[in-house]
């Protein structure tokens, strides 16, 4: 019996000693890891800044088939939030602030331990240097876990390294897998639509579309206006020299309507027109190359462009249909007109009408 008492006392003393040891350990930590990501800075930033992509590369939740994810209404903007509950762990992360294509500051909580993480994106030879930094305070339970597994630097550092490797693999395939197909001359069908028109920098068009398209769709839902296909952009002007474009962000509707005076959402109608059609399969970041190849095709064929507007882009398959950029599809139409000196070109009939299928009311 005395031996059992001694063993029990020894266990109690060991537990107390271990608890004191853990309690006296430094609770703060700092970890920093970097990796070359083989894509542009804008692509890397855009992918990380959207919480919809986190399941695919962050190892806090990697491999958990039963994970339950929840996103805030906006998964990209400041104060965007993402939380998860899994068999291994649960937590949440919130974007506090960001600098476009440069830096993202976030706050994260995993199993009660809160800390800050910072993403830094810098151009470098061969792609983008992505640095992931973290600092914070560990809870008592997380101190125990760290003490038994080599410390915060090793544990969190390994998680960061694996996440950056996953990020590189995903971006290398998802962003850089694309195809451009120039179909030639087609007859584009018309449609009534709702729009917002303004002038902005060309490199902010996609960002603006993620704000305006949901607003137009919500307007349709609130006023019981039946939509008639995919959102599209009309480029009235496209000034590459100054980097500016006058655009209309549009949602097609079944029947023409009139909007009230003073409304920032206006109704209009797109007339049928003959166009050179190009399809971009893959991430929208390759749109400049698609436009460049289309212009080269037009010049080669000596086709006369109509001056009514620059071109039109239809988001046939976007983020609302697939979160994988390699599966996205953007259709581009350059309006043309016949000219006596121009060679005769064959008009092809489109197999499908990109503005006739229903859209899920979420961000593109």
UniProtKB/TrEMBL annotation:
Name of the featured protein: Transcriptional regulator
Ranges of Polar residues composition bias in the record: 352-364
Region (Disordered): 345-364
Source organism of this protein record: Flavobacterium ammonificans
UniProt superkingdom: Bacteria
């Amino acid at each position: 019996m005395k031996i059992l008492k001694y063993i029990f006392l020894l266990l109690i003393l060991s537990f107390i000693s271990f608890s004191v040891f853990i309690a006296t350990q430094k609770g703060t930590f700092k970890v920093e890891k970097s990796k070359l990501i083989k894509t542009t800075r804008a692509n890397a930033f855009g992918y990380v800044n959207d919480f919809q992509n986190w399941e695919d590369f962050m190892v806090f939740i990697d491999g958990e088939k039963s994970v339950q994810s929840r996103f805030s209404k906006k998964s990209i903007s400041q104060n965007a939030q993402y939380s998860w509950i899994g068999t291994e762990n649960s937590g949440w992360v919130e974007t506090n602030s960001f600098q476009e294509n440069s830096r993202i500051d976030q706050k994260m909580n995993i199993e009660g331990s809160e800390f800050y993480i910072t993403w830094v994106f810098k151009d470098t030879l061969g792609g983008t240097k992505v640095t992931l930094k973290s600092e914070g305070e560990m809870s008592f339970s997380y101190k125990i876990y760290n003490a038994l597994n080599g410390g915060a630097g090793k544990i969190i550092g390994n998680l960061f390294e694996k996440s950056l490797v996953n990020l590189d693999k995903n971006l290398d395939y998802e962003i850089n897998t694309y195809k451009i197909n120039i179909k030639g001359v087609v007859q584009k069908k018309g449609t009534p639509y709702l729009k917002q028109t303004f002038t902005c920098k060309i490199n902010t068009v996609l960002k603006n579309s993620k704000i305006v398209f949901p607003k137009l769709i919500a307007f349709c839902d609130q006023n019981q206006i039946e939509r008639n296909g995919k959102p599209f952009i009309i480029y009235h002007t496209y000034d590459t020299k100054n980097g500016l474009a006058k655009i209309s962000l549009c949602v097609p509707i079944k029947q023409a309507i009139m909007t009230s005076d003073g409304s920032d959402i206006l109704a209009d109608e797109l007339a049928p027109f003959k166009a050179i059609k190009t399809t971009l399969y893959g991430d929208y970041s390759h749109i400049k190359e698609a436009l460049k190849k289309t212009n080269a095709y037009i010049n080669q064929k000596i086709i006369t462009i109509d001056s009514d507007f620059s071109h039109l882009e239809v988001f046939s398959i976007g983020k609302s249909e697939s979160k994988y950029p390699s599966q996205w599809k953007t259709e581009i139409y350059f309006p043309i007109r016949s000219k006596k000196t121009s060679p005769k070109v064959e008009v092809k009939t489109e197999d499908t009408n990109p503005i006739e299928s229903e859209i899920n009311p979420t961000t593109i």
